[in-house]
């Protein structure tokens, strides 16, 4: 059932909300105007709200006509430090900031669902609509949880949704288990002995050592992780030296490690540490690995993934719900919520081609307003099916 029809008055409201949010992007934990705007929309709909969790987070509560369990629906509200290159009427008004991941669309779809459910609350139980800050690297989900999100608003289940460029508009993707990867940030420092580039024999060259380490790291996944499992190690920064004729004392590198199986994490990190320290020592240098914890993997409950598949099928038909798409090595802090509660995280197609298929985090990306009624209708159907 498509609860919110394309072209309807509510769809037009959603477009208005989305374009305002797109024009006023704010970064992690700085979403003050964004939060105010979302709150004003919810208040105009006469939906009770709670503000302040995670600084700028909002929880809007909609009560059904009968008693029953509570479920949580989550959308993220922050933007990225990207300069928008789109030439559109609602282009970002904040230079260097942009909704390049579609969080404006995610918030809009949840607002649309909230508006519909407020007027059509023929369900038994409670819906908590969670508008979460700081998904893009600062773990806003974790901060809301630590500040008492699920103590103040108990839920039996939690659900999230992300738009997916390249997936046809009008389709959804639902995974039974792994959806998105866990991530750790790697910082590696190699301390050698600098000197004149013409006399390398009098130095301990950390640049050469760094090259050996980068090459060796590529063997960790291929020779330690089962071929049917997945992990990624990428070194993305190498910083050393300031002159063409000087071998530096130190090389600093940075990168990322991604994984799905929680058991893979300690194994890979231990192997990285061993190689960094061992290869450095074999050249007479010292190597140090610092790990900056990131997000755990997003792992759906198969049972709750089935609920999501049923709800999306009610909107677009079972044939348009992809059930075998590979998971993504991108990361998502909704993982913290799934560690607290059973639930599911799904993808909604943003479209194919030059516009809808433009990659996330790209300066030309834009959320597809045409799919907003489908996403909001998914939320409505999920609530009606789970809170019968």
Task: Write structural notes for this entry.
With 388 residues, the protein is an alpha/beta fold. 35% of the residues lie in helices and 25% in strands. α3 (103-119) links the parallel β3 (66-76) and β4 (124-132). α3 packs across α11. The two termini are 15 Å apart.
Short description:
With 388 residues, the protein is α/β, with parallel strands linked by helices.
Mean pLDDT: 97
Instruction: Label the overall shape.
Output: elongated
Helix residue percentage: 25-40%
Q: Which residues form runs of ≥5 with pLDDT under 50? A: none
Regarding quaternary structure, how should these chains be classified?
A: single chain
Radius of gyration: 23 Å
The proportion of strand residues reads: 25-35%
Q: What is the number of beta strands?
A: 16
- Within the largest sheet, what's the order of strands? 1-2-4-3-5-16-6-15
Termini separation comes to: 15 Å
Largest sheet: 8 strands, mixed
**H-E order:** HHEEEHEHHEEEEEHEEEHEEHEHEHH
Q: How large is the count of helical segments?
A: 11
Structural class given helices, strands, pairing? alpha/beta
Give descriptors for this structure.
11 helices, 388 residues, 8-stranded mixed β-sheet, alpha/beta, elongated
